[in-house]
Amino acid sequence: MGDTLEFNEIYQEVKGSWNDGRLRFSKQNVVYKSSKTGKVDSISAGDLNMAQWRRVCLGHGIKLGTSTGNIYKYDGFRDTDFEKISEFFKANYKVELTEKDMCVKGWNWGTAKFSGPLLSFDVNDNTAFEVPLSNVSQCATGKNEVTLEFHQNDDTEVSLMEVRFYVPPSQTDERVDPVEAFAENVLSKADVIQATGDAVCIFKELQCLTPRGRYDIRIYPTFLHLHGKTFDYKIPYTTVLRLFLLPHKDQRQMFFVISLDPPIKQGQTRYHFLILLFSKEEDINLTLNMSEEDVERRFEGKLSKNMSGSLYEMVSRVMKALVNRKITVPGNFQGHSGAQCITCSYKASSGLLYPLERGFIYVHKPPVHLRFEEISCVNFARGTTTTRSFDFEIETKQGNQYTFSSIEREEYGKLFDFVNAKKLNIKNRGFKEGMKGKTDEYSDSDEDQHDAYLERMKAEGKIREEGNDSDESDGESDESFNPGEEDDDIAEEYDSKASASDSSEEGDESEDESAKKKKAKKVKVVKEKKERKPRKEKKQKDTGGPKRPMSAYMLWLNSSRERIKSENPGISITEISKKAGEMWRQLGKEDKEEWEIKAGEAKRQYDKAKKEYKESGGGGGGGGSTSSSKKESKKSAVKKETKRKSAGGDKDRERGGGNDSFKSREFIETSEESSSDSDRKSKTKSKTKNKSKRKRESEEEEAVSTPASSEEESD
């Protein structure tokens, strides 16, 4: 057997919710680390004095007891794990792993036993359920009754609010009230916040960023009391996860961050972090409200009765001693400006991102703490608005994504070196130039790597700047970045005119291309008009013909509708159809055959009537009239086009100086392009005038021809 046993996906119950994590048994200790919060529970091997193997809701579980009275429960083991865990405990811990059965009878009367921090309800010496007294928020007594109220957990879908115990009166000792004795045992271990006695020390008017405002902080032995003008918060030290002391970028202020789980509540708002802001220049002389002997015995030299120094140092020192947790400070990271943080934006507000030795923390709105263990990958993305900044994206293993935007471009090298040194997975590493061969190598320097990225950003900026006055290839490459396509088209038209004055060949080619584009557009318009005509044929409907016959189901429904109404008084129309559908499906083949015969007879009668209707000309009369009217409308449209073409031809002959030969529009345009600039300008003006005249004449022709065609159709 090895020196350690490790198990994944082991669950620990925390105020009604199951948090998964990893459990490791070693010769020295038992260590459990939560995947959600990163909190570590360590039990020394010498402190273990009890181990039980139990069947629970998540398979099998282990209940461990220590000599100090603490109880730890871990669930999620398999049945096959019992033998190797039992042998490991005997060999290394000298503790026997005993099997303990749970009571599943469902009885609600039994014996209440207080064993350390647990209240166990036993039925016939078998435990029915256990209540961790640390989850109790309030204990109330009544006549022969004790009510326990519990702390609520936002992560659970269903929460246990309270439990009531009926305590029968004692018949042996009348001097002791069993209800009061029960309540005293609960309150001795419960997490009930009672502001009894004097505070150890008080800090006046401290600036708090979350929750926002100025609060008086009163330090009690077991909890922290924030007293403000409108709200009060009581924070037990057991809910404090981590402490952070972070210098501001201006080097004149300090952040003191307290991470909380579960968070403090104000209505529907949850505050997972308590952030205090201090000035480095502010000093304080602090005197603890305890005797020197009590201070020495309680804090073991961590604090003294009289202390003086900076305000942020005193607050952090007192909190560290009371909470008994380390204070996390920034590591060796230094940004471009020499600060230990990076200015960036998260969501809608600007703040500071601190790269720590084991994670990232962002302050202050909203505060975010990401441990390296829960990070899946990071991504360096180009800024959406300008190339002077970039975005830093972090994806977690749970699928959440955090984007810190508007980071200065100068910070890229330092941040990339930090991420690479911490061996975090970089998502877009393969897309960068010069980085494909260095995916798994972290020992080499990264100067060439981040220089390639900066050069790429600069090159893209130059391309966008040259896109306004560059050739066609640059214009095409910049289409994705410049959505204003109309401005680019106008610039190209002016450039083509300028090139035509310099070199006639280039001008001819560009104008020929523009002429072809105009012709193509005209052809498209004609095609669209032709495609719209068939839509009118869908509106034809013959209303004079015979009606279609009903199906077998409809014939049966018409005959059975009154019967369904009588059998189900007050039934609605929709319910009748549903009921009829069910009845029709339940009918046999013989019953349905009767109605199918009737439906077939109705179908034959319909076919006969339809045939007679068509022979009499009823079905084709309307269609023939519509088709004849369409033919006449087509003829009139052809006449209009021939008239317009002849009129245009006569005008072209007149322009040609009396020459009888016909000149096409292409010939006229090419002759105009081969002429000088001055002639071309005058001819373009005459063109626009002739076009307007032609348009007016065509409108007059339409006004004259329209009533005539309508009269012909009516005749």
TrEMBL record:
GO terms for biological process: DNA repair; DNA replication; regulation of chromatin organization. It is found in: Chromosome; Nucleus, Nucleolus. Residues 546-614 form the HMG box domain. Keywords: Chromosome, DNA damage, DNA repair, DNA replication, DNA-binding, Nucleus, Transcription, Transcription regulation. It comes from the Eukaryota. Residues 546-614 bind DNA. Pfam families: HMG_box, PH1_SSRP1-like, POB3_N, Rttp106-like_middle, SSrecog, SSRP1_C. Residues 459-553, 589-715 are annotated as: Disordered. This is FACT complex subunit SSRP1.
